[in-house]
Amino acid sequence: MGATTALTSVRAARIRKGGRTGIGPVTTAASAETPKTKAGMVKGSTGTANVTVAATSFTQGSATMTVVQPGLILASLSTTTTTLSPENHFYAYVGYPSGTSVNAQNVRAGGPPVTVTFAVDNLGIGALKAGAIIQDDTVTAVIPPGLYYTPSSVATGGVAFDPIGVGTATVTARAPM
User: Fold this and answer.
1) Which positions of the chain have pLDDT values less than 70?
2) What confidence score (pLDDT) does residue 8 get?
3) Residue 104 to residue 73: CA distance in whole angstroms
4) Do the Cβ atoms of 123 and 165 come closer than 8 Å?
5) How far apart are CA 70 and CA 75, in angstroms?
6) CA–CA dist 171, 132 (Å, integer)
7) CA Rg, the chain, in Å?
8) DSSP secondary structure string, the chain?
9) pLDDT confidence of residue 12
10) Which pLDDT value is given to residue 42?
11) What is d(CA 37, CA 28) in angstroms, rounded to the nearest whole number?
12) Can you tell me the distance from the alpha carbon of 33 to that of 1, in angstroms, rounded to the nearest whole number?
């Protein structure tokens, strides 16, 4: 037997259900096969929203959702290397900030992938490699929906740092989030 759930919030403009946002209560038919009501925050919004879910014959439930600006961090990139060293495969991952780090969190299933742009500030010291022949100061890799990281090797679509000179170089990563 199906039940209708109502999802409400005093900050309805921050709540999204399907493609609908900020329109007051969101109602969804639920059944034994699909007993869950899923909702999330509107992309680009941050803050908190108190959310209440109610359905006939069920106890009402509520929770506070908190949304923060996502973070991006580099992983497995050596900080010391030599010109004799092989290329250093590394990756970036997304999640929610926690102190000076990021707690990994998958890109939303069904959402768009996140394209990460990697850059090195001194091409005389090191170059970035992506794919079989792309070696430059700027390359990209993609975090697909359902994962939190870019591929961890060039062979699988990731990136590597190739040390080619003596000195200091800074590698950065950025992504539109």
Assistant:
1) 1-44, 133
2) 57
3) 9
4) no
5) 16
6) 20
7) 22
8) --EEEEEEETTGGGEEETTEESSS-EEEEE-SSS-----EEPTT--EEEEEEEEETTS--EEEEEEE---EEEEES--S---TTSPPEEEEEEEEEEETTEEEE-PPPTTS--EEEEEEES-TTTEEEEETTTEEESEEEEEE-TT-SB--SSGGGT-EEEEE-SSS---EEEE---
9) 54
10) 52
11) 7
12) 10
Cα angle 83, 90, 170 (rounded to 5 degrees) comes to 60
| CB 67 within 8 Å of CB 42 | no
> What phi and psi, each to the nearest 5 degrees, are found at residue 154?
-60, -40
Q: Please report where in the chains the tokens 């900020």 appear, as a residue.
A: 22
Our CA angle for 115, 175, 51, nearest 5°, is 100
Buried b (16+ CB within 10 A) or exposed e, 52-84: ebebeeeeeeeeebebeebbbbbeebeeebeee
**Could you report the per-residue pLDDT of 45-89, keeping only the tens digit for each?**
788 878 788 888 888 888 888 888 899 999 999 999 999 999 999
> In which residue are the tokens 């190739």 written?
162
- For residue 67 the two structure tokens come to 């949304």
* Residue 141 neighbours by CB distance under 10 Å: 25
Q: 171 with 108: CB under 8 angstroms?
A: no
